[in-house]
């Protein structure tokens, strides 16, 4: 079973072929191919890291764009009458990993 750990959206994710990732919004439209930077690659007994990762490519297909759940931010200061409420929804992209290849 081969898997890789890739850097995606400021985080590291463990991926295999067929894994669906949700990452920060990418500048790509649906059905485009994107590549990720591998941090580690494990294929059976072989483990590649460091300079050996130049041989590894991880590619995926963009499925769709979506927005994350709403996060409510509230500020309050006691005895001053100050209240503030805001919301935030992250822009996300869903990507399906199509290939992990070693040259």
Q: What are the main properties of this structure?
A:
single chain, 103 residues, mainly beta, seven-stranded antiparallel beta sheet, two-stranded antiparallel ribbon, 9 strands, 68% strand
Structural shape: elongated
Ends apart, CA distance between termini: 17 Å
User: How many distinct beta strands?
Assistant: 9
Task: Please state roughly what percent of the residues sit in beta strands, choosing from under 5%, 5-15%, 15-25%, 25-35%, 35-45% or over 45%.
Answer: over 45%
Query: Mind describing the biggest β-sheet?
Result: 7 strands, antiparallel
- Separate helix tally: 0
Query: Which series of helices and strands comes N to C?
Result: EEEEEEEEE
Q: What share of residues is helical? A: under 10%
Q: What is shown here, in short?
A:
This protein is mainly beta and 103 residues long. The protein is 0% helix and 68% strand.
Describe this structure as you would to a colleague.
- With 103 residues, the protein is mainly β.
- The chain has one domain (2-102).
- The protein is built from no helices and nine strands.
- Strands 1, 2, 3, 4, 5, 6 and 9 form a seven-stranded antiparallel beta sheet that branches. The chain has a two-stranded antiparallel ribbon with strand order 7-8.
- A hairpin with a 2-residue loop joins strand 1 and strand 2 (11-15).
- The radius of gyration is 19 Å and the shape is elongated.
- The relative contact order is 0.31.
- The model has no long low-confidence stretch (mean pLDDT 93).
- Belongs to the bacterial ribosomal protein bL21 family.
- Keywords: Ribonucleoprotein, Ribosomal protein, RNA-binding, rRNA-binding.
- This is Large ribosomal subunit protein bL21.
- This protein binds to 23S rRNA in the presence of protein L20.
- One of its GO terms (cellular component) is ribosome.
């Amino acid at each position: 079973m081969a898997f890789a750990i890739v850097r995606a959206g400021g985080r590291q994710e463990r991926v295999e072929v067929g894994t669906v990732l949700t990452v920060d919004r990418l500048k790509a439209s649906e059905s485009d191919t994107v590549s990720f930077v591998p941090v580690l690659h494990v294929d059976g007994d072989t483990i590649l890291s460091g300079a050996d990762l130049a041989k590894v490519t991880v590619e995926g297909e963009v499925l769709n764009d979506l927005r994350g759940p709403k996060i409510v931010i509230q500020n309050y200061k006691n005895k001053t009458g100050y209240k503030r409420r805001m919301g935030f929804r992250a822009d996300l992209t869903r990507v399906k990993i199509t290939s992990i290849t070693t040259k």
